[in-house]
Design goal:
Radius of gyration: 20 Å
Oligomer: single chain
Strand content: under 5%
Number of strands: 0
Helix content: 55-70%
Largest sheet: none
Distance between the termini: 47 Å
């Protein structure tokens, strides 16, 4: 049973904690050991949710950190994180079991006999199947409600969001981009993607030309967020999961005023 965290949902925590990690990593001016301890505590909470997205995002965040590995302080933080996490996993049985099961059921590589769950193995394979073929198999695909060419262009409104808004339809693609298309058609998805690209470009320029650490944190958070949207339905409308994106929009709009 996964730990739901203060967010109240196993799945939601798994795709939202990385912003806090990046803020601590890039913006907290504290000892590397303390910084590593704080980040490790967040990672441990992520593992205890037993959410595959949590495990995957830990790997993504560590990969991002490794890009900056040559900097002395950052090198120390990464080493401390690996040491703390290794000790914690070795000592605490629930954490050890959680880590092994998440690795096995995400990658499909069975390290310990009997821990592999065939129904939930390989997150990429399952996500691809849902994306191409259907929604949850026991539910009616929202596309089945398209009655005219207008529906393909303008979408189905709130009903098209399925389980996002629970409007007499619990079906979902487990993909935020397709949910957005189903709700608002070509226009809505186009506006969202253009806004995404605009934010990424602006945040990148702020970091490169002004060495803006806030922009760096928001830039990386948004990239991870956009990736998670491929596997998580309704992410754009969740106040905690979409936090880095909406804060980025406000930050960019207010940038001149802040300066």
């Amino acid at each position: 049973i996964g730990y739901s965290s203060i967010i109240g949902s196993v799945n939601s925590y798994g795709v939202s904690y990385y912003t806090a990690v990046l803020i601590i990593f890039f913006m907290f001016y504290i000892k590397p050991s303390l910084k590593a301890l704080l980040i490790s505590m967040i990672f441990i909470g992520a593992i205890l949710t037993t959410s595959k997205a949590s495990f995957l995002n830990i790997l993504i965040v560590l990969s991002v950190m490794s890009i900056f590995y040559k900097k002395t302080n950052i090198k120390s933080v990464i080493i401390y994180i690996l040491v703390i996490m290794s000790i914690a996993i070795a000592i605490f049985e629930p954490l050890k079991i959680g880590t092994l099961s998440l690795y096995i059921n995400t990658s499909g590589h069975e390290l310990v006999t009997g821990m592999k769950n065939e129904d939930y193995v390989n997150i990429f394979q399952r996500a691809f199947h849902r994306l191409i073929y259907d929604f949850d198999s026991e539910l009616t695909p929202i596309a089945a409600y398209f009655n005219s060419s207008k529906d393909y262009i303008l979408g189905l409104g709130v009903f098209g969001g399925g389980s996002v808004f629970v409007k007499n339809n619990l079906a979902t693609y487990h993909n935020s981009y397709l949910d957005i298309y189903m709700m608002g058609g070509i226009y809505f998805i186009s506006i969202v993607i253009i806004t995404f690209i605009f934010c990424i470009k602006r945040l990148y320029n702020y970091y490169i030309f002004e060495n803006d650490k806030v922009a760096l944190v928001l830039l990386i958070s948004n990239i991870i967020f956009f990736f998670n949207m491929c596997f998580y339905n309704g992410a754009l409308f969740h106040p905690i999961i979409s936090f880095p994106f909406w804060i980025s929009v406000v930050y960019i709009c207010k940038k001149k005023h802040l300066n």
